């Protein structure tokens, strides 16, 4: 899991190991509560790519909703 603070939100990028690679997902939190989560975004061959994709999704969500 990778964490970033962005515009007052805590963003989490997740990488979930799968038989075919790493599933990316993202979570947006504010004031200790989950605001939104992505579900599985895509499968990547590399763990770090999945983490980055999850964080990118979370930043885009904040930009579109905050």
Structural account:
It is built from 1 helix and 5 strands; from the N terminus they run βββββα. It has 66 residues and is an alpha+beta fold. The protein has one domain (2-65). Strands 1, 2, 3, 4 and 5 form a 5-stranded antiparallel sheet that branches. It is elongated and about 35 Å long. The model has no long low-confidence stretch (mean pLDDT 97).
Short characterization:
The chain is 29% helix and 50% strand.
Total helices: the number is 1
Major sheet details: 5 strands, antiparallel
CA-atom Rg in angstroms: 11 Å
What is the approximate shape? elongated
Sheet-strand content, in percent, reads over 45%
- Structural class designation: alpha+beta
Number of domains: 1
Please tally the β strands and state the result: 5
Helix content: 25-40%
Order of helices and strands: EEEEEH
Low-confidence stretches: none
What value does the average pLDDT take? 97
Please report the distance between the alpha carbons of the first and last residues.
23 Å
Key attributes of the depicted protein:
elongated; five-stranded antiparallel sheet; 1 helix; alpha+beta
């Amino acid at each position: 899991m990778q964490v970033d603070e962005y515009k007052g939100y805590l963003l989490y990028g997740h990488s979930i190991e799968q038989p075919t690679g790493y599933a990316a997902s993202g979570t947006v939190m504010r004031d200790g509560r989950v605001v939104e989560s992505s579900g599985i975004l895509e499968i990547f061959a590399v763990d770090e790519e999945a983490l980055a994709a999850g964080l990118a999704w979370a930043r885009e969500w904040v930009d579109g909703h905050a």
